């Protein structure tokens, strides 16, 4: 049956070329083509898009929207099936690394393979010696071993230096003895550990000759490669069901304990430090912080993932807001589309703009990460602190805003957003741990704050700040300048926006540094002022996102109307932040309240400008209906019949009279009948 496009009228309003915008969103024509091809391949192959479960009726298939109704054990087994099937497809069709990554992304179920490819392999790459890379990477790439990243413990996650697991060198046998001395030292949370991984990178305190050298990474085999049973001395299992139905429960986050498990000496990852055969601890000339390199890698990757998750929620909420109508019907005509309410626009359009902003900052961060990694290879470590602060900060900003944004999109869809078939509850449940994993977002902003305080303290020594903190080099100007905005449209100038964000970030950092200097004990001061420091760090990170959006607009961006749309989105993103954090800009004395009101006035005008393009800007994300997994976000907008149809598929509707009627409802009704007769 031919489908009707209920959003066709919306699509006709677009003032830009949607196909060209798809390429801008994807990053390049090639990236678009790969994503487009793989997303359709997944959507069209039932083995990848459906969940198959053995039940009393035989094998039954469920669509993605129905996933939240299924029991965890069945879902988990199905995820194993899909991972194996995907892997076979990757090998049989000789997919490139990029295509394989896209396949995993569009299958869209958290799985052990994410930890294997996303954290285990990067950890070996970052911390292994050449010989170790040569030995372990081919095994990992061919999936002859499956690995996870076992850092966090029951008692410690954020405080990596506080981990308790020990790796004691035994020179007699040339081995390390890995041990969990306390309950709190049990490894707890690693994805893929619970039921699948054969190996783990285990972070443990390195002890030689009775001396504790701090945390190091070790490759430890956990399970037999024959029968998958835990090896002697190893206790391993899943930590239990997590938030939400379906959601992250396809991942086997695990618990792991060691009882004096022996591994050969060459399974210590030795790029940063080595232990010799006679037990001597030798530190390399690379900084110790390289032990944390894989966290930096994953944090930068999570930024692009944030834009992906936010774009899904925004796509659902935008399409549905154009379909949904409430109030204002005159003479029997149609009611108003809820997307035309200014309040709906003021909640939705900043999120649409944020999705684009996060995509561009993610693109830039990937470039920055690659650049620094190349320098590290050449033993230039000068940009490592900036990379750490930037990945930590932008991961924190984007994942918090994305998780909050998904929830806002759910509310923007009214009651129907609360149905699992809207796709939004599960998207939120899957996504929200990104605010915690790979570093709690507040802990990460405190790292940014330390970097900023160090930068401010070094300004007087004449050290010239570069890169993302180059703006601090203009400190004298930024501390005393005032906004010259005289009317609302002056806020459209990139220079006006940029100076506002630079002045605010500088002044907030300097204010913190001044407050800190009043403490005799700087560490005590840091703890006391932590909430202000977090706000200063956020101001710095928001400046980075805004400035990278502006830089993107300075590039040559071809395509009809594309640049104009991006300019509107960039101003919405920046002015929305200015409006939300109005207090910061006022208190630091950069703007007057009148200039703040101008920003808000301009923001409303921008909402009107983006309105006719909203559905097409969401289409430019190029999400298939399968990937969205949402009745509200369907491309054709055919929401009501599909919602109605889906309700009848709920297990509760398998019979008119529910199980339990005879035991629990009938007696109640009888009792009422008797009372009525009395
Ligand atoms: C839904 C999923 C979607 C998509 C996934 C997408 C892509 C990825 C694919 C798969 C992954 C899937 C899921 C993710 C799984 C999540 C895995 C994990 O969670 S692993 C565990 C992560 N754990 C943490 O992040 C712990 C956080 N804590 C820390 O990082 C550190 O302990 C700390 C908070 C930074 C503090 O460290 P420490 O106590 O050592 O620090 P100091 O503050 O004293 O710092 C000393 C010195 O070092 C510098 N520094 C700290 N960290 C780094 C670093 N990473 N790199 C470089 N330098 C660093 C710090 O700035 C100090 O410098 P100094 O001031 O001395 O110059
Ligand atoms: C779904 C999921 C998957 C994960 N996967 C892995 C994995 O594969 N491998 C792995 O090793 N780990 C994994 N983790 C663990 C994760 O990395 C940690 O949970 C995370 O780093 C946070 O640490 P924590 O749990 O110790 O939080 P805590 O540090 O205990 O945080 C609790 C609260 O204390 C606050 N807090 C902590 N320290 C400070 C401070 N210094 N100043 C101010 N406030 C502070 C935090 O902001 C937070 O509000 C995973 C976690 C989840 C949820």
Overall mean pLDDT: 96
Approximately what portion of the residues adopt beta-strand conformation? 5-15%
The biggest beta sheet reads: 6 strands, mixed
Tally of helical runs: 24
**Low-confidence runs (pLDDT<50, min 5 residues)?**
none
The set of bound ligands, ions and cofactors reads: ligand L4NZOF2J, flavin-adenine dinucleotide
Give the topology.
Elements: H1 8-12, H2 18-26, H3 29-44, H4 46-49, E1 51-55, E2 58-62, H5 72-92, H6 97-107, H7 112-127, H8 130-141, E3 147-150, E4 166-170, E5 175-179, E6 187-188, E7 199-208, E8 211-221, E9 234-238, E10 254-258, E11 261-264, E12 273-275, E13 281-283, H9 293-323, E14 325-326, E15 336-337, H10 342-377, H11 384-412, H12 424-431, H13 441-459, H14 475-480, H15 494-516, H16 522-528, H17 530-553, H18 562-580, H19 582-587, H20 593-610, H21 614-619, H22 625-628, H23 639-647, H24 661-677
Parallel strand pairs: 3-7, 4-7
Antiparallel strand pairs: 1-2, 4-5, 5-11, 6-10, 7-8, 9-10, 12-13, 14-15
Helix pairs in contact: 2-3, 3-6, 5-6, 7-8, 7-9, 9-10, 9-11, 10-11, 10-17, 10-18, 11-12, 11-13, 11-17, 13-15, 13-17, 15-17, 17-18, 18-20
The structure holds ligand L4NZOF2J and flavin-adenine dinucleotide.
Ligand L4NZOF2J binds at residues 110, 114-115, 118-119, 149, 151-152, 157-161, 191, 289, 292, 295-296, 298, 301-302, 305, 384-385, 388, 430, 434, 437-439, 443, 447, 450.
């Amino acid at each position: 049956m031919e489908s009707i496009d209920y959003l066709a009228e919306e699509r006709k309003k677009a003032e830009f070329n949607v196909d060209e915008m798809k390429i801008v969103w994807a990053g390049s024509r090639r990236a678009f083509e790969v994503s487009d091809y793989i997303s359709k391949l997944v959507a069209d192959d039932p083995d990848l898009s459906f969940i198959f479960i053995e039940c009393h009726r035989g094998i039954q298939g469920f669509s993605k929207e129905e996933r939240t109704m299924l029991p965890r054990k069945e879902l988990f087994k199905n995820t194993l099936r899909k991972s194996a099937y995907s892997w076979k497809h990757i090998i049989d069709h000789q997919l490139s690394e990029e295509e394989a990554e896209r396949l995993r992304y569009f299958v869209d179920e958290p799985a052990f393979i994410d930890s294997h490819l996303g954290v285990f392999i990067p950890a070996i790459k970052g911390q292994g010696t050449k010989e170790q890379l040569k030995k372990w990477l081919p095994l990992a790439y061919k999936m002859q071993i499956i690995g996870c990243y076992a850092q966090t413990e029951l008692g410690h996650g954020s405080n990596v230096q506080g981990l308790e697991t020990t790796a004691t060198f035994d020179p007699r046998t040339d081995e390390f003895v890995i041990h969990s001395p306390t309950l709190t030292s049990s490894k707890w949370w690693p994805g893929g550990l619970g039921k699948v991984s054969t190996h783990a990178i285990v972070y443990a305190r390195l002890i030689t000759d009775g001396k504790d050298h701090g945390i190091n990474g070790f490759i430890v085999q956990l399970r037999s490669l024959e029968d998958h049973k835990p090896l002697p001395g190893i206790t391993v299992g899943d930590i239990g069901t997590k938030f939400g139905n379906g959601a992250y429960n396809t991942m086997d986050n695990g618990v792991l304990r060691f009882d004096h498990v022996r591994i050969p000496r060459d399974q210590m990852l030795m790029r940063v430090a080595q232990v010799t055969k006679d037990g001597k601890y030798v530190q390399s000339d690379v900084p110790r912080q390289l032990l944390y390199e894989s966290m930096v890698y994953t944090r930068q990757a999570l930024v692009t993932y944030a834009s992906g998750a936010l774009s899904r929620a925004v796509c659902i909420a935008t399409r549905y807001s154009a379909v949904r109508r409430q109030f204002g019907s005159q003479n029997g005509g149609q009611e108003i589309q809820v997307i035309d309410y200014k309040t709906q626009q003021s909640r939705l359009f900043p999120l649409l703009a944020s999705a684009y902003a996060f995509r561009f900052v993610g693109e830039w961060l990937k470039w920055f990460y690659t650049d620094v990694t190349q320098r590290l290879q050449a033993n230039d470590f000068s940009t490592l602190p900036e990379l750490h602060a930037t990945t930590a900060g932008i991961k924190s900003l984007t994942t918090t805003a994305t998780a909050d944004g998904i929830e806002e999109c759910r509310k923007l869809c009214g009651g129907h957003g609360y149905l699992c078939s809207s796709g939004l509850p599960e998207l939120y449940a899957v996504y929200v741990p990104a605010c915690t994993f790979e570093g709690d977002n507040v802990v990460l902003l405190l790292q940014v704050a330390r970097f900023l305080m160090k930068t401010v303290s070094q300004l007087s020594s004449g050290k010239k700040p570069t890169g993302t903190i180059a703006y601090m080099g203009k400190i004298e100007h930024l501390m005393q300048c005032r906004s010259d905005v005289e009317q609302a449209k002056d806020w459209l100038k990139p220079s006006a926006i940029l100076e506002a964000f630079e002045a605010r970030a500088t002044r907030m950092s300097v204010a913190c540094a001044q407050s800190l200097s009043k403490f005799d004990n700087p560490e005590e001061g840091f703890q006391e002022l932590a909430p202000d420091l977090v706000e200063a760090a956020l101001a710095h990170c928001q400046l980075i996102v805004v400035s990278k959006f502006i830089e993107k607009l300075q590039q040559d961006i071809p395509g009809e109307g594309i640049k104009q749309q991006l300019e509107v989105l960039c101003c919405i993103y920046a002015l929305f932040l200015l409006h939300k954090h109005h207090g910061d800009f006022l208190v630091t004395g950069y703007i007057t309240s009148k200039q703040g009101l101008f920003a808000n006035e301009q923001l409303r005008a921008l909402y009107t400008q983006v309105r006719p393009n909203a559905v097409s800007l969401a289409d430019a994300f190029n999400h298939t209906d399968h990937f969205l997994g949402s009745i509200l976000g369907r491309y054709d907008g055919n929401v009501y019949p599909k919602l109605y149809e889906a309700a009848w598929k709920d297990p509760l509707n398998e019979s008119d009279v529910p199980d339990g009627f005879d035991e629990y409802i009938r007696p109640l009704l009888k009792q009422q009948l008797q009372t009525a007769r009395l």
